[in-house]
Design a protein that fits this description.
The complex is a heterodimer of chains A (337) and B (306). With 337 residues, chain A is of the alpha/beta class. Helices cover 39% and strands 21% of the residues of chain A. Chain A has helices spanning 7-17, 36-41, 53-65, 76-80, 84-92, 120-124, 138-148, 195-209, 228-234, 253-263, 285-291, 296-307, 315-327, 331-336, and strands spanning 2-5, 22-26, 46-48, 69-75, 99-103, 131-134, 155-158, 163-166, 180-183, 188-193, 214-219, 221-223, 240-248, 270-275. In chain A, helix 1 runs parallel beside helix 7 (138-148), helix 3 (53-65) runs parallel beside helix 5 and helix 8 (195-209) crosses helix 12 (296-307). The longest helix of chain A has 15 residues, at 195-209. Chain B has one domain (5-19, 30-282): Rossmann fold (3-Layer(aba) Sandwich). In chain B, 38% of the residues lie in helices and 11% in strands. Classes of the chains: A alpha/beta (337), B alpha/beta (306).
Chain lengths: 337, 306
């Protein structure tokens, strides 16, 4: 599996090259949110806003009223917890093209409760005029800024930073409100997002070897949530549907799928893998994903429960899968699985 | 008849006060004290101090066309009542949306809004809402949640500066909003970026919903606090139209945002209200006798030249 270093840092520089209306506002986290290369490339379009997020959100709204496209960079938690009112009244109500580029999704930080945006999607999904994307790999990251071009209102981008895996073919950009079909199958429909897609892929390759057929979708657009690809997949499986996300079980991807099933009268079993109704501590991502049961092993267990059968998959099997399966296959093969 | 701008402006302010008292009697309740404290400032802004230009909006507004978003109105629609957004035009940004009735009355008195529209205040389907938002006449921003306009004005003014435009961004706000932390974040940022194309005009009436500001949450000394944040602060009498205009147009503040503190009387023009201070957030009349007293006052209320 290819790892890409700082894809957002490079991508936003390329993105802004021929888009003079793009400006970046940073909440005193310029390197940490990968907008430092933008600052180097376009210093006249980069503005440090200090540690004052309420002001930053409203200020961005003012700029957007004047035809600029402000891309606010900070950690996700600081985009919606403290300045939730400013986000709603200065940005969302007037439907302004402010782009909220949020880092450290879910458990992606050892920073603990103050830095873990475990409920951001649930907090932002009910806001009218809001569009929500979540990146799961480098190709997602390289696609999402382009997708904002056609969106007149605010967009929240749940971003990954640092070394990011490339799970999907770089030549097949992510499309708006369209899930990627990673595998076809008839026993279980698995719908994953963000960090959890890579984690799920480690498990699905082994689960499939045990004879369970899985239809796996990777979702990038979390709002709107009207994708016919997802709706069609909900009706297909023999056993049921599993969702998996780096977010609390309430109000995120699993919640959106549940709403879609209710709205369309889909009478299948749904298991939502996500963080239970709790805050989390600061630790490594692997430790936290295990502790809160949103990792590959947790997916194996939920599949076993759903089909009422032990699959005899060990942690070593999953660790090996990470190397043998994900790393060695081309992205085209992955897409075709 | 005295036709100096000062007298004409005071006449507008008188009309604003009178209209809102009339509405307060008609509806038995309104944001009357906010109107009394701010009428001279608003009249000065609309008739003299700012470069606004003629209204670009319908004199009689349509019913609410729908909130911003798909098939809704454009952001900032209400500002079309204040005039064009040309590079040289000043932008008037209303922060305390509870002053909406005073804004509508000023628009009506300056020929920008029909009297019928003014009297549609707070009726179903009208954009002339009790607490205005950017779909309402005179409003460019949605500021019923206090303390957000200074920051938004900063973003607008910043974009105007990037484009080299000469028009100023003028925020009208209330002293109670100085209690909001974001106001100080905004002033801090305006000072940091040396935004001298922003002018913040504060109605310092010393009142808030629960009582006198000094008793509820003291914000004084305002001028030294604001100066300490790096802005230029000026203190004026909120009922002296000449001083207000001079503070806006003659104060030297190169490289600094300007904050004009307009100390006001929240019963200005209606001494009958004095005894109810400091409980004047939303004025209602408690008895038929009291209503008759104010009706009598209104019927005999005439403009007095200075």
């Amino acid at each position: 599996m290819e790892m890409v270093s700082n894809p957002h840092a490079h991508n936003i520089v390329a993105f802004a090259k021929d888009r003079p209306d793009v400006v970046v506002l940073s909440g005193d986290l310029t390197v940490a949110t990968e907008c430092h290369k933008f600052r180097e490339a376009y210093p006249e379009r980069f503005f440090g806003m200090g540690m004052a997020e309420q002001n930053m959100l409203s200020w961005a709204g003012g700029m957007a009223r004047e035809g600029l496209k402000p891309f606010i960079h900070t950690f996700s938690v600081f985009l919606y917890r403290r300045p939730y009112d400013q986000l709603q009244m200065s940005v969302a109500y007037p439907n302004l093209p402010v782009r909220l580029v949020g880092f450290l999704p879910g458990l992606d930080t050892p920073g603990g409760v103050t830095h873990q945006s475990i409920e951001d999607i649930a907090a932002l999904r009910p806001i009218p005029n809001m569009t929500i994307f979540e990146a799961g790999d480098a190709t997602d990251i390289e696609s999402l800024l382009d997708l904002t071009d056609d969106i007149p209102g605010p967009v929240y981008l749940r971003m990954l930073r640092g070394e990011v895996p490339r799970l999907f073919d770089a030549d097949k950009p992510t499309r708006f409100n369209t899930a990627r079909v990673l595998s076809e199958g008839s026993d279980i429909t698995l719908i994953t997002s963000g960090r959890c897609t890579e984690e799920a892929m480690r498990a699905t390759s082994v689960i499939r070897q045990r004879g369970v057929s899985i239809k796996h979708l990777h979702v990038t657009t979390l709002k709107p949530f009207t994708d016919p690809v997802v709706l069609e997949a909900l009706g297909a499986p023999g056993f049921g549907i599993i969702t998996m996300e780096n977010h609390v079980r309430i109000g995120g991807l699993g919640g959106a799928v549940a709403e879609m099933m209710t709205d369309h009268g889909v009478g299948k079993r749904l298991v939502r893998i996500g963080i239970d109704d709790t805050y989390c501590s600061g630790a490594t991502l692997a430790y936290l994903m295990r502790k809160h049961e949103i990792d590959a092993l947790a997916l194996v267990h939920r599949v076993e429960e759903m089909i009422s059968e032990r699959l005899n998959i060990s942690e070593d099997d999953l660790a090996a899968a990470r190397i043998d399966d994900v790393k060695s296959r081309s992205t085209e093969q992955l897409e075709a699985l | 008849m005295d036709n100096t701008w000062q007298t004409q402006t005071r006449r507008v302010a008188f009309g604003v006060r009178k209209r809102v008292l009339e509405l307060t009697l008609k509806n038995n309740g309104c944001y009357l004290s906010q109107t009394l404290s701010s009428a001279d400032v608003l009249a000065t802004l609309y008739t003299k101090a700012l470069n606004l230009g003629p209204s670009e909006a319908p004199y009689m507004p349509t019913l609410h066309p729908g909130v911003p978003g798909e098939n809704g109105i454009e952001a900032g629609y209400g500002a079309t009542y204040n005039g064009p957004r040309g590079p040289e035009n000043d932008r008037l940004l209303i922060s305390p949306a509870h002053y909406a009735v005073a804004i509508y009355a000023t628009l009506a008195e300056t020929g920008r809004l029909s009297p019928e529209a003014f009297y549609s205040f707070n009726t179903d389907g009208s954009t002339v809402e009790m607490i205005g938002a950017e779909h309402s006449p005179g409003f460019e921003l949605t500021t019923g949640s206090f303390g957000q306009a200074v920051s938004q004005a900063g973003g607008i003014a910043f974009a105007k500066r990037l484009r080299g435009e000469s028009g100023r961004c003028v925020v009208f706000m209330s002293d109670g909003e100085l209690e909001e932390g974001q106001t100080w974040e905004g002033l801090q940022c305006l000072a940091h970026y040396k935004m001298d194309n922003v002018i913040v005009i504060v109605d310092v009436n010393g009142m808030q919903c629960d009582g006198a500001t000094a008793d509820m949450m003291n914000v004084e000394p305002i001028n030294t606090r604001i100066e300490a944040f790096g802005c230029k602060a000026v203190v004026v009498d909120a009922h002296d139209v000449e001083a207000i205009d001079a503070a806006i147009n003659e104060t030297e503040h190169a490289g600094q945002p300007l904050v004009i503190l307009c100390y006001s009387n929240s019963s200005e023009g209606i001494p009958l209200l004095d005894h109810r201070k400091p409980k004047l957030h939303y004025v209602r009349f408690g008895s038929a006798e009291e209503t008759a007293q104010y009706q009598d006052f209104l019927d005999n209320w005439t403009f007095e030249e200075a």
